[in-house]
Design a protein that fits this description.
By secondary structure, the chain is mostly helical. The protein contains 11 helices and no strands.
C-alpha cells in the first residue's frame, strides 16, 4: 500500500489544479489527524491516506466529461446526479481507482465513493474521509470551529454534526438532498440508539 500512496501522491500533484491539490493535501493531513485521534493505525491509516489523496481525483472535470466518464465506466447516474453532475465526481472517481490508479482496495473505494454525500454501510475509514473533506483547515464557513470541536465527542457524533450542518445549508438554499445522506444519517442515529 505504501507504493500506492507514493504513486497517488505523484499523480494528484501532476493532475489536479493547484487549489484542488492543496485541498487534497489538507484533507489527507486532517484525515490522518482524526484517524490517529480515533486510534487508527497501520493498514487503516494507509487506507485513509490513500482515499484522502484520491477522493477528488476528477472533481475539476466539467459536467459533460463526468457524465461521459460515468457512461464509459458503466455507472448509471441517479436522477439527482443527472441534475447536479458535480455530485458524480465521487462516484466516477471511485470507479476510476482500479483502472487509472491501480487501486483495488474495497475500503479505499468506499471512502472515495461516499466522501461527498455519505451512504449506508460506511466503515470507519470512509467516515473519517467524509468528515475530513468538509472540515479541513482550508474550509471557511459559519460554525466550522464548533463542528471541528465535535471531534472530541467521537467519530459518529462528528459525522452527525457534519451531516446536520450540510442539511441546514442545503435546506436553507432550497437545494435537493441526496437520499444517501439521509441513509447515512439514519444509520448513525440507529447506531446511537443501540449504543
Amino acid at each position: 500500500m505504501k507504493t500506492d500512496i507514493q504513486r497517488a501522491t505523484e499523480l494528484v500533484a501532476s493532475q489536479l489544479p493547484a487549489e484542488l491539490y492543496r485541498h487534497t493535501v489538507r484533507t489527507r493531513d486532517y484525515a490522518l489527524e482524526l484517524a490517529k485521534a480515533y486510534g487508527c493505525e497501520g493498514r487503516e491509516l494507509e487506507r485513509i491516506e490513500l482515499a484522502a489523496l484520491l477522493h477528488d481525483n476528477c472533481k475539476h472535470w466539467q459536467a459533460q466529461r463526468l457524465m461521459d466518464e460515468a457512461k464509459t465506466l458503466g455507472y448509471e447516474p441517479t436522477e439527482l446526479e443527472m441534475r447536479v453532475p458535480a455530485l458524480l465526481h465521487a462516484r466516477v472517481g471511485a470507479h476510476r481507482l482500479q483502472r487509472d490508479f491501480g487501486v483495488t482496495d474495497g475500503i479505499v473505494y468506499s471512502a472515495v465513493y461516499c466522501h461527498t454525500v455519505g451512504g449506508r454501510g460506511m466503515g470507519r475509514e470512509a467516515r473519517i474521509v467524509f468528515c475530513a473533506d468538509k472540515l479541513e483547515p482550508g474550509r471557511d464557513y459559519e460554525g466550522l470551529e464548533g463542528l471541528r470541536a465535535r471531534a472530541a465527542d467521537g467519530l459518529n457524533e462528528l459525522c452527525l454534526a457534519v451531516i446536520a450542518s450540510g442539511l441546514n445549508y442545503l435546506t436553507g438554499k432550497g437545494a435537493p438532498i441526496d437520499t444517501a445522506t439521509l441513509d447515512f444519517y439514519n444509520e448513525l442515529i440507529l447506531e446511537r440508539s443501540v449504543g
